[in-house]
Amino acid sequence: MPPAASAERRVYKIASIPADGIGPEVISAGITVLQTLSKALGTFDLAIEHFDWSSATYLKTGKYIPDGGHEKLKQFDAILFGAVGAPNVPDHISLWGLRLAICQPFQQYANVRPTRVLRGTQSPLRNCKTGDLDWVIVRENSEGEYAGQGGRSHAGQPWEVATELAIFTRHAVERLLRFAFETARSRPRKLLTFVTKSNAQRNGMVLWDEVCEIVAREFPDVKLDKMLVDAMTVRMVLKPESLDTIVATNLHADILSDLAAALAGSIGIAPTSNLDPTRKNPSMFEPIHGSAFDIAGKGIANPVATFWTAAEMLAWLGEKDAAAALMECVERVCERGITTPDLGGTATTVAVTDAVCQEIEREFSRKK
């Protein structure tokens, strides 16, 4: 739980887990910007502790998270996470060994992925202007297709069998859908698009549909529409302005949010919040882009996704004005054309970070 607001300068304890690939580069950039913002505002401090939990740690010790690691994390107000995944560790081991090993035990069941075309950037959609694409994707983050249920038998035989079970419980579906409706209600358009595939998946997805109809009765002020996931990809591309808040299952929203980031200009700008809405456990904040080993160490990773992620973390902690100020500074830098190659620019990670820090300092020096 974040500390209660008081007249004193607030201190938030942040666990930093840079992990793999470009994770250390962008998390370092994010912390630099956060510390600059904290100093400029003078209203809160960040007590940051770094955790060397990574694929290198796994290869050395056999574990991503050491014994007692979860209890240690519970002492923090939030977790700032980089990315996990390495060429010399199978992806299903790295993902389940670190990221999902935090999300699921901490019941971070609401994965929230805002997406919009930032000022100074350009969507690959020909007629999409700033403001036309402004979405929040709410992803179920505790079960569904990523429940981890299933198995393999008769290994190596021609009749080898592998099963992967998608688990949908009324409890988890209901709490996530209620969160999605509340999110839609908080936005000006009060529009929620519900994504399903119940025409083909007639058990779990039909429960998903039925629970949505029940929860919708509690939110008569929210306009609800329904899309099959395949048709949703078409609508996102052809009519981005027709969407606002989107809710989907673990797998469907995972895929749709990557498409959303690309349509907004680059996966290098998109943030993620893994939230425990009850606030019993710390929530975890991470950029969408993954470990991107192909550009690791080259100094060209886009730090904007981490800056936006940091802003989402601040808003969750109660520092909404600071979050808004940070994003305003990020967009001003983008407008000046200081962007990394994925956005068509030539700037380095450090150059973008320095520019955002300078913009923060200019912004708050004007206000003093």
From TrEMBL:
MF terms (GO), sorted A to Z: D-malate dehydrogenase (decarboxylating) (NAD+) activity; magnesium ion binding; NAD binding
InterPro entries given in the database record: ICDH/IPMDH (IPR050501), IsoCit/isopropylmalate_DH_CS (IPR019818), IsoPropMal-DH-like_dom (IPR024084), TTC_DH (IPR011829)
Keyword entries, A-Z: Magnesium, Manganese, Metal-binding, NAD, Oxidoreductase
Top EC class for this record: oxidoreductase
Keyword Zinc: no
Record-linked Gene3D superfamilies: Isopropylmalate Dehydrogenase (3.40.718.10)
Catalytic activity, reaction form: (R)-malate + NAD(+) = pyruvate + CO2 + NADH
Cofactor(s) for this UniProt protein: Mn(2+); Mg(2+)
E.C. number: 1.1.1.83
Isopropylmalate dehydrogenase-like domain residues: 13-356
Entry-linked SMART domains: Iso_dh
PANTHER family: D-MALATE DEHYDROGENASE [DECARBOXYLATING]
Family per similarity comment: Belongs to the isocitrate and isopropylmalate dehydrogenases family.
Protein's name according to its UniProt entry: D-malate dehydrogenase (decarboxylating)
Species the sequence originates in: Orbilia brochopaga
